[in-house]
């Protein structure tokens, strides 16, 4: 059957745009004898953080692909905002062409972001937004949709039976956690019989999450589901549930995929975990920076889908690659 003219023209347009983008980036490599310098400031550069080391792996892969120089820094702890601001200042002294930043704090990194753009340096944000909106592009997990997925997997299959759930996150909720909670509440509102028992916080450590869940279980023994909105909350809640041997009574849906969470998934202590794609995020951040520096208009917001992993699907090849990525140390 002949292709209709409007369809043919649309396909042709997409091909031409793709060719122009590729050609522009190749010309940038050929005509610019100096390699582009891109500074990367992560929330943490701690080698014990599987998530951020996987982001680094994606960044390094893209840097090799696009022939750019990168310098990756970041504080030891994700809560060291002052340390991250120093990292940004140190990066600016070297006058890079672009800075890729995963901001530890929505408000406090605002002045640093403005300083970057005022210096003429391109700013690409990853993982978390900043209130200034000074960036060329933000590349992050769609956390609202990830929260919806957590709500659906936790509340689904109840057939209208009473099912009480709560959320657990840090006392100082990140933007990501707020979005996850919002998406979670939207999802469970569509399930008759599911009752939201409230949002609860803890002081940021696994021990604090464990103690908070022990306290909550004593106060609300009829809780049947907990959405833990970060890795620390997941590990602390799981420890409290295991201690009481309530794995069959209380369902936990968590976030991220540390080796400890994978073990809990295998044991059936947590029902599911929502896994992000940090390699993709890292790779896209460098690709986007190179495009912006070559004069190509970049997408101001790039959403990356999260993936639901359960005990039943964790052994597929795709999910094994997400759970056990080859991280460069």
TrEMBL record:
It comes from the Bacteria. Keywords: Membrane, Signal, Transmembrane, Transmembrane helix. The chain crosses the membrane at residues 6-25. The keyword Secreted does not apply. It holds the Pfam family Peripla_BP_4. Gene3D superfamilies: 3.40.50.2300. InterPro entries: Peripla_BP_I, SBP_2_dom. It comes from Paenibacillus aceris. It is found in: Cell envelope. Belongs to the bacterial solute-binding protein 2 family. Residues 38-295 form the Periplasmic binding protein domain. Its main location: other. This is Ribose transport system substrate-binding protein. The keyword Repeat does not apply.
């Amino acid at each position: 059957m002949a292709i209709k003219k409007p369809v043919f023209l649309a396909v042709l347009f997409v091909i031409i745009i793709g060719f122009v983008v590729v050609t522009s980036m190749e010309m940038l490599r050929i005509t610019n004898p100096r390699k582009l310098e891109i500074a990367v400031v992560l929330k943490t550069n701690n080698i014990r953080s599987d998530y951020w080391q996987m982001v680094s792996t994606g960044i390094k892969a893209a840097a090799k692909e696009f022939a750019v120089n990168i310098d990756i820094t970041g504080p030891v702890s994700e809560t060291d905002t002052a340390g991250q601001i120093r990292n940004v200042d140190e990066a600016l002294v070297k006058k890079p062409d672009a800075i890729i930043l995963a901001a530890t704090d929505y408000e406090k990194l605002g002045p640093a972001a403005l300083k970057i753009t005022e210096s003429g340096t391109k700013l690409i944000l990853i993982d978390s937004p900043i209130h200034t909106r000074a960036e060329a592009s933000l590349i992050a997990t769609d956390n609202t949709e990830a929260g919806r997925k957590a709500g659906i997997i936790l509340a689904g299959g109840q057939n209208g039976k009473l099912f009480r759930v709560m959320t657990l996150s840090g006392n100082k909720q990140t933007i990501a956690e707020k979005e996850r909670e919002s998406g979670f509440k939207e999802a469970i509102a569509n399930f008759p019989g599911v009752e939201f028992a409230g949002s609860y916080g803890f002081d940021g450590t696994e021990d604090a999450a464990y103690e908070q869940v022990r306290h909550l279980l004593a106060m609300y023994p009829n809780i049947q589901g907990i959405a833990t909105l970060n890795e620390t909350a997941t590990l602390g809640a799981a420890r409290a549930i295991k201690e009481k041997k309530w794995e069959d009574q209380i369902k936990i849906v968590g976030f991220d995929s540390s080796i400890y969470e994978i073990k809990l998934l295998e044991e059936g202590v947590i029902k599911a975990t929502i896994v992000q794609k940090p390699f993709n995020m890292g790779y896209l951040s460098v690709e986007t920076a190179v495009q912006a520096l070559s004069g190509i208009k970049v997408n101001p917001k790039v959403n990356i889908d999260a993936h639901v992993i359960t005990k039943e699907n964790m052994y597929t090849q795709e999910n094994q690659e997400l759970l056990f990525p080859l991280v460069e140390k």
